[in-house]
Amino acid sequence: MAGFDLLMQGLVAAMDPMLLLYALIGVTLGTAVGVLPGIGPALTVALLLPVTYGLDPAGSLIMFAGIYYGGMYGGSTTSILLNTPGESASIITALEGNKMARAGRGGPALATAAIGSFVAGLIATLLLAFLAPSVVKIAIAFGPRDYFALMVLAFVTVSSAFGDSTRKGLISLFVGLSLALVGIDQLSGQARLAYGVPQLLDGIEVTTLAVAMFALGEALFVAGQGGPGEAKVIAVKGSVWMTRKDWARSWKPWLRGTALGFPIGAMPAGGAEIGTFLSYATEKRLTKHPEEFGNGAIEGVAGPEAANNASAAGTLVPLLTLGLPTSATAAIMLAGFQQFGLQPGPLLFATNPDLVWSLIASLLIANAMLLVLNLPLIGLWVRLLTIPRPWLYAGILVFATLGTIGANPSPVELFMLLCFGVMGYLMRLYGFPIAPVVVGLILGPMAEQQLRRALSISQGDLTTLVASPVSAVLLALAFLALVVPMVLRMRGKGQVLTQLAADED
Amino acid sequence: MSGFNPSQRRPDGVALVTAAALGAVAVLIWTDAARLPQDAGYSGVGPADVPRWIAGCLGGLALWSLVAAFREAPEAPPRQAWGPVLWIVAGLLAQLVLLQPVGFSVATGLLFACTARGFGKRNLMVTVPVGIVFALAIHLVFAGLLKLSLPAGPLENLFLGG
Amino acid sequence: MKHTLFAGLVAAALAVPAYAGDYMIMAPAAPGGGWDQTARTMQEVLGAEGISGSVQVQNVPGAGGTVGLAQFVSQNAGKGDQLIVGGYVMVGAILTNASPVSLADVTPIARLTGEYEAIVVPASSPIQNIGELVEALKADPGAVSWAGGSAGGTDHIAVGLLAKAAGVDPTKINYIAYSGGGEALAAILGSQVTAGISGLGEFKAQADAGTLRILAVTSEERIEGVDAPTLKEAGLDVVLQNWRMVAAAPGISADQKAAILADVEKMVNSASWQTALETKGWANTYLAGDAFQAQLDADIASTETILKDIGLVK
């Protein structure tokens, strides 16, 4: 296979000490900026891309790959340790990861995230290398109705996976869906709920909401909980490393996360988040330790983090083969590729095979370099938690607002940040889960648009929604996911009731 | 309900407020949707339909919360000190208001100091200068080196050669 | 648009360090988009050619450029060193968003670049030429679904104009809006829709690879390197250019306007501007002063009519 030879050549070429040094610099810079709370991979890559300009193509490509992986991993680090995700795809990682960190298990959480990222990145990059042209054919066959069915499946599985109270989980989800309505309706051009404020016409930015609800909400909540000298955080309890049991509980979620993340990331309208949502829901279903979910289950970190990285590699499929950037990070990567003379599109694999293979070789090297750099650093990262709280949280807030100001220095945007921060605080205070709000904001518009597109194409014929095999299967799965737990619960309830009756006897 | 539940406990205030808020949002969305032209095109689902569905569901959740307020035992009210929270909110407001007139560093420095105050560092004489220097350093790295466009004031211009 | 956020920081990094500027150019969009790139390119060229000692770019994103436009108009009246970049998309956005300020509130200087629209079908489509597409549209407008950019944008307007020219009721077109050219492209390639419409640049690579068939372009004359007729040749009187322009502040004096015009002309004629256009693949459609003003007025009038016809503006 010609591809394999080229890949090997690329890997051998990349073993040059100078190139390895560039990879190391890239990973270090990417991690250093990505680790700042509230600053996600997209911003990290955009900010650091210019650093690569001075180098020769091979050097800049490999440094770029390093920045990319470093930025992604740095983002997860802060999500886990400080509960301040800078982008929507690492929200799910924060969910369980932060609980682990609070229990002094930040080390294993970071390790399973790092190794999971590596495994997922490795598998997904190889899939990208050898299957991209055929994967993309399947991906573009996904029409609006199939996407709609996928969204329905995501809604059903995700909303059942959050929180203890169904009522509160649903309220959070619908708050997100309501926020998603704000702005110009893309299909009709009508402004909804904007009340004449021009800044609202573009809708509510997901990153603003995520940073506000997580970073600000968290800071307010922690501040309100106690005065000075209150309960010191335990940075490390037990081993910093993963135990045998952690490994045993992690490897399957890594593989499942990869299997979910890569194909969904490869779809032109899939997005990186949905894979993480589905992975979390899957792990929660399959785990042998359901009681740990919500209190720091390692599967809940391993799966979504692997899914996140696999879908990031997945987004490269439409990017390289069609020239379609399907995420914020991908859009910036497109700008980067063009700088390196790589013109993504249908002819790329045919006309520039050497560049494609050296890119893929660079991704593999950077991925490995990330692991080399970050595993030893885990002990250092968890020390972040020992910074005195006033300084730590003051710093978090500075960086969280920096991300927003850098994207859009409008007072309206900052005001929204403040409002959502207070909302996130109140929701935390009264036991409403936060993640479903962001999930609603992301999935809501996608589901609505795909539904209306599907119906528009079929001219209002509702049967179109189940007419394709893919949509029919996905909707059937969604139906099962909704009904089976209900049936089980009802039977369970029956048992409990009989037990109660028995107790009374 | 009254028949076999003689204990006269107070309804759950949080659930009541939630119900009221959800109801209000539902009404808001519904009235906004009513204003939109019902132009469904070929899909049969127009711009106002999905908002209506969501408003309907919000109404349902409001009712559920109302019922829950009277049925379920109220959860223990969380203990919260409001002072620190207000300090941080004030810091964010200060940054919002001052960002354009005085620039990133001073506005963000105040946010830094207010947050530190919320977490117990009371001495503003120390925290404000520390915050401003910290924010200025960030400004120099991100705006100066990495070319992120951040609002600049007199202080930044002093360093960036304005 | 949101997806390209920050991509333009890349361009920003290449620019000369900022001093207090002779010109301040507002890009009423997030970094990375076409307007931002135009502003950054102007910044580079004005600096490199020594036309202006220092130029700063300011991004004010939102609502098809109308947020930036409103701020520009309210803050800069009479200032001769303030410029704003804009484009045809703004014309439609001002109307659909019922923006309180319009392009009549600024002083248009010149049209700089432009791109024509292309109408495509997937290679597997039975439709071979624009005539067959129009026939299908006439027979049953609902059965012909069009994928393109956001509702009320250039792509939507082009389909409306085409339908009108073909004698089909523009309110009856089955237009399916996607968030960007990319997502629409995937839908077209996957044969989810009958036809697609967007800027020629979005489709060029796919057409060269043989996965898409370009049926027609919206230019006045045939475009070099594109094997497709114009709509005019096909008997449909539709010419539409998605142009980008530069405008100055409201209420500036004739002298101030003349000075800006001279600087912009110098910039457009410079070698580095030509190189920049070539590397970015932009067509030079420079048109200045009164001729541009007349063209702008005509575009605004025809856009308002067609948006009313489609039913997007009341």
For CATH, the homologous superfamily of the largest domain in chain C is named as: Bordetella uptake gene, domain 1
Number of helices of chain C: 11
- Report the C-alpha radius of gyration of chain C, rounded: 20 Å
Largest sheet of chain C: 10 strands, mixed
Give the gist of this structure.
The complex is a heterotrimer of chains A (505), B (162) and C (314). Chain A is mainly alpha-helical.
Structural description of this entry:
The complex is a heterotrimer of chains A (505), B (162) and C (314). In chain A, a hairpin with a 6-residue loop joins strand 1 (183-184) and strand 2. Chain A is globular. Chain A is mainly α and 505 residues long. Chain A is built from 19 helices and 2 strands. A two-stranded antiparallel ribbon of chain A has the order 1-2. Chain A has one domain (2-467). The model of chain A is unreliable at 496-505 (pLDDT under 50). The longest helix of chain B is centred in the first third of the chain and has 23 residues, at 13-35. In chain B, 39% of the residues are buried. In chain B, 68% of the residues lie in helices and 0% in strands. The radius of gyration of chain B is 25 Å and the shape is flat. Chain B has 6 helices and no strands. Chain B has 2 domains: 13-71; 82-159, no CATH class. In chain B, helix 1 packs antiparallel against helix 2 (49-71). Chain C is α/β, with parallel strands linked by helices and 314 residues long. Chain C has 2 domains: 2-114 and 241-310, 3-Layer(aba) Sandwich (D-Maltodextrin-Binding Protein, domain 2); 116-217, 3-Layer(aba) Sandwich (D-Maltodextrin-Binding Protein, domain 2). Chain C is 41% helix and 21% strand. Chain C is built from 11 helices and 10 strands. In chain C, strands 1, 2, 3, 4, 5, 6, 7, 8, 9 and 10 form a 10-stranded mixed sheet that branches. Chain C is globular. The interface between A and B is large, with 62 and 69 residues.
